[in-house]
Specification:
Layout lengths: L4 E3 L4 E3 L5 H13 L5 E2 L2 E2 L5 E2 L5 E2 L1 E3 L4 H20 L9 E9 L4 E5 L10 E9 L7 E2 L2 E8 L5 E9 L5 E6 L4 E3 L2 E2 L9 E9 L1
Antiparallel strand pairs: 1-12, 2-14, 3-7, 4-5, 6-9, 7-8, 8-17, 9-15, 10-14, 10-17, 11-16, 12-13, 12-15
Length: about 200
């Protein structure tokens, strides 16, 4: 029986999101703070964080200092444009949630939704800003966004997908309720400085 419907996940991709001095400063801050990164976790149904190496492998930093103000201010200025392109009505923003993530050799994040826990149900828009040291010393690490489809039993499942490969100084926006994953990164050196870096987070209703 054919699918009853299929909905392509909307996304917005913006190049050259920060000026050169800004993303270079962000990279320098990230490299200086390498030892402060900790193992990434995942949220359970109750909102508690736990580690699960079979589901997610990366390192994260929550202490962003001025970097958070930079990305929040820039996203705020673009938000009306982003919401229009995502076909989302404007909404009062309650807060921004931002973190730095480093993904290195063999690391990944399997298929998930960013609002799939009561503790984060107010996440409305997800964003991923890419930056890395040049020359680029990794490959892989693409973001894969799955379209929603309804099967013959009325269940919503993942359908076809769109794949976004990391590009320097690029940001991607998408609805937080869409299924997505980070494909494995390949980094021959294994050095932290050669990681796939993202400044990623969520706009909350």
């Amino acid at each position: 029986m054919a699918d009853l419907w299929r909905h392509q996940t909307p996304l917005v991709v913006l190049d050259e999101f920060l000026v050169a001095q800004e993303w270079a400063g962000l990279l320098q801050y990230t490299l200086r703070r390498g030892e402060a990164f900790t193992q990434s976790g995942v949220l359970d149904a109750g909102g508690a964080s736990r580690t699960d190496d079979a589901y997610r492998r990366s390192q994260v930093l929550y202490e962003l200092n001025a970097c958070q103000n930079l990305i929040v201010d820039r996203i705020t200025s673009y938000l009306p444009h982003v919401l229009a392109r995502l076909r989302q009505p404007p909404f009062p923003v309650s807060r921004f949630e931002v973190q730095l993530t480093a993904t290195n050799d063999g690391q990944f994040f399997k298929t998930h939704r960013d609002d799939d826990s009561e503790a984060v149900r107010t996440r409305a828009i997800s964003f991923v800003y890419y930056f890395f040291r040049e020359p680029k010393a990794f490959n892989g690490g693409a973001l894969r966004l799955y379209d929603a489809q309804l099967d013959q039993n009325g269940n919503v499942t993942s359908g076809e997908h769109q794949t976004i490969h990391p590009a320097q100084n690029q940001i991607v926006f998408f609805p937080s309720n869409c299924l997505h994953e980070v494909l494995p990164v390949h980094c021959e050196s294994g050095n932290f400085a050669d990681s796939r870096f993202t400044l990623n987070g969520w706009v909350h209703r």
